[in-house]
Design goal:
Elements lengths: L1 E2 L13 E4 L10 E7 L4 E7 L4 H10 L4 E5 L4 H7 L8 E5 L4 E4 L2 E4 L5 H15 L8 E4 L6 E5 L4 H10 L5 E5 L3 E6 L4 H11 L7 E5 L5 H6 L2 E4 L9 E2 L7 H12 L1
Parallel strand pairs: 1-15, 2-5, 2-13, 5-6, 13-14, 14-15
Antiparallel strand pairs: 3-4, 6-7, 7-8, 9-10, 10-12, 11-12
Helix pairs in contact: 1-7, 3-4
């Protein structure tokens, strides 16, 4: 790996698409989530950071030179709200770790799930709910269409046991990112999502760049023509950002704008 400072104009001469992770890359990390159920109603509260005006302006400037994609495990509705000023035109959103893409006013589902996969998803969710009240680390499920995202105070081995029991074939991944588990079929990931978007735009993966920081970003960083990591100790890439703290996405944008 090389520091991002060594990225050259020659290296990006064919670059057309830049894909950004969300948490810790373009917005500050952290999700505060809680769910309170009674016999009559349910109150779900989800609190996350906003896209800063500074980051928004940087991304809008970069959008003049490249197609901008946001790729996240978050839902399409969440991403649309946070990145509304980035849409539409030369920008798109990849949600639920590559299951959906939103661009040009269309929400595209890249794969339709068969009955067996849907049954596995349902059974996993049902069994995970049984952990609530038993393990104090259980917090709440984040609303998604297909991707299962369970927030927890700490890693819970029971989650992997539930998935293994309901998926003996090993078709599903279980990723812990420090605040939540993501669970979905292995074939559906951010790398596949980037490939779908590149195909839609008639681009090769060699014409793409991706930046991320977590386990769900590895497939995307590996698939892109140029992969950038903001957490080089845990995720490998061609380049790594060197700034201290969150939002390595800003460092990447500044570097790209200095080269175009």
């Amino acid at each position: 790996m090389k520091p991002l400072s060594e990225l050259t104009k020659e290296a990006i001469k064919n670059l057309k698409l830049v894909c950004f992770d969300v948490d810790g890359v373009t917005v500050k990390k952290g999700t505060d989530i809680s769910e309170v159920r009674t016999s009559e109603d349910t109150t779900l509260t989800v609190k996350t950071s906003n896209l800063s005006n500074e980051m928004r302006d940087k991304m809008l400037e970069l959008k003049k030179h490249f197609f901008i994609a946001i790729s996240s495990g978050r839902s399409s509705l969440y991403l649309t709200k946070v990145y509304s000023e980035l849409l539409w035109g030369n920008a798109g959103l990849i949600s639920e770790n590559g299951i959906f893409t939103l661009l040009e006013g269309k929400l595209i589902q890249h794969e339709y799930f068969d009955k067996g996969t849907l049954q596995k998803i349902r059974n996993i969710v049902v069994d995970l709910k049984k952990i609530e009240g038993v393990n104090k680390d259980f917090r709440a499920f984040e609303p998604k269409q297909f991707l299962i995202t369970l927030h927890a105070w700490n890693d819970m081995p029971e989650v992997r046991e539930v998935v293994k029991r309901n998926d003996p074939e090993g078709e599903f991944y279980v990723w812990w990112n420090g605040e939540a588990f993501d669970i979905a079929p292995k074939r559906l990931n951010k790398g596949a999502g980037l490939k779908h978007l590149a195909d839609y735009l008639h681009l090769s993966l060699e014409q793409t760049m991706a930046i991320g920081n977590g386990p769900n970003d590895k497939d995307m960083i590996d698939a892109a023509g140029i992969g950038v990591t903001t957490e080089p100790k845990s995720v490998q890439g061609d380049y790594y950002t060197t700034g201290i703290g969150h939002l390595g996405g800003a460092e990447l944008i500044d570097k790209l704008l200095s080269l175009v």
